[in-house]
Design goal:
Enzyme class (chains A, B): ligase
Distance between the termini of chain A: 47 Å
CATH architecture of the largest domain in chain A: 3-Layer(aba) Sandwich
Strand content of chain A: 15-25%
Largest interface: A-B, 28 and 28 residues
Largest sheet of chain A: 6 strands, parallel
Family (chains A, B): Belongs to the pantothenate synthetase family.
Number of helices of chain A: 11
Catalytic activity (chains A, B): (R)-pantoate + beta-alanine + ATP = (R)-pantothenate + AMP + diphosphate + H(+)
Subunit structure (chains A, B): Homodimer.
Oligomer: homodimer
Radius of gyration of chain A: 19 Å
Strand order of the largest sheet of chain A: 1-4-3-2-6-7
Number of strands of chain A: 10
Keywords (chains A, B): ATP-binding, Cytoplasm, Ligase, Nucleotide-binding, Pantothenate biosynthesis
Chain lengths: ~280, ~280
Amino acid sequence: MKVVEAIEAIRNEVIAAKQTGLSIGFVPTMGYLHEGHVSLIEAARKDHDFVVLSIFVNPLQFGPNEDLDRYPRDFQRDEQIAQKAGVDVIFYPSVPEMYPTNMPMSIHVTSGVNVLCGSSRPGHFDGVATVVMKLLQIVQPNEAYFGQKDAQQLAIIMNMVDAFNVPVIIHGCPTVREEDGLAKSSRNVYLTKEERDEAPFLYEALKEGAKLIRSGETSRAFIRAELEKRLESGSGKVDYIDVLSYPSLEQSERLSGKVILAVAYVYKNARLIDNYIVDIQGEK
Amino acid sequence: MKVVEAIEAIRNEVIAAKQTGLSIGFVPTMGYLHEGHVSLIEAARKDHDFVVLSIFVNPLQFGPNEDLDRYPRDFQRDEQIAQKAGVDVIFYPSVPEMYPTNMPMSIHVTSGVNVLCGSSRPGHFDGVATVVMKLLQIVQPNEAYFGQKDAQQLAIIMNMVDAFNVPVIIHGCPTVREEDGLAKSSRNVYLTKEERDEAPFLYEALKEGAKLIRSGETSRAFIRAELEKRLESGSGKVDYIDVLSYPSLEQSERLSGKVILAVAYVYKNARLIDNYIVDIQGEK
């Protein structure tokens, strides 16, 4: 496995691989890899001959009061995990390599963005879309892999690839969970023992909400209130609870079709997100 | 020469050409071709084996009170000109082919945009950047050709390709002029006989301004005032006159380095633009 830091170097790696007829799978990450990332690498490995992993903590997607500086990083550990999972090249650029000057423009997302994480993290998805567009232009993979855990991010990236006709397939992979149901996340390391013990109740609440929907409940307000009730007992604070159409992320008081139940919950040093997708037609 | 209307069709044409080892030159236009466009096609023809011309009047770059509906169109004439100039394929998409739904996001230009045409055409360059990004993703050329006449557009597209690492070379070609100096433009057909006779004074004024700069004048205000004086006698109205650094398009009261003198002038049915670039260091 190679590690390259320069844009030109990763391009040369990919060009060389393509010239020998290999197809390219790409897994963009912010590092501090966990089994969720490993599942993305494995999916890419299964479908493609040559797997590129990028590790870049993108300043553009962090707000001024967010956790950019203390976002967890451990490159040596990431390197070992990546090698074991079958990555061919890690692209590990510095901030000046990705942003040699202030960006004179960015992608501005106007749809599916004023809900869920978008409403509490203004500009976040502009930063995500902008860096993913850059990475897709740099790596030029056949297919790129993202986790369903970041459901809004996945929806927006799918929209972006459609909107700008980027020649790549976007692949959404299921959320990987701890044994007790907590969604794997790089930010889980910031939970206290008590918080960690409590945190699986997020997924439990989502599953209960999904059960209500499956049993015929179609009121968005009712489901939100039920989820709220279940999370009241927690030691953290609800950032949002919502039930929206998926992947369009529109609010409708009467639920129908494919919907996403989504929650963001704030502990002392970590904000956790999780979601559950139910297809009302499909499952009834 | 082929004409294709579907995104998939132009992609297949380009893929087939690349597979036989051909390099791709691309000339994006809004049609109603004139000798300016022909010079772009000829430059592409000279450098590349396979030349794609796109003709698409992009609604996104027209403001609500602008001339989208009456923008001149004559596809049959364009087809003849393109064939004669050596185009291999014309990509001629409909609006629904390019924008099947409302765009859920766009490129938002924040630098080099509040001057010249950007200040009188809010959102114009967002529309330009967005459609050019789409066209570059669709066609995936080795090199794309733009006219220096639209100097701000050229600067912003060069910035875009850098900012998003789009794997393409952007080539700026010199403005093509009528014998009397008027810059070729699809909008020239809208000039009355009197306006057409008068219009070359725009280029004359720019040349005079450039002469002053070459002779040592470094005051932006003075040059602007001189240009203003020269255009006062005209039957139209000055939209802007400016002298800026190029290609960064920054305002500085003391001129130095490479600068652009630029003018936009409004006649009854046509808004004309022109510019002149002087390299103060290089020419002194």
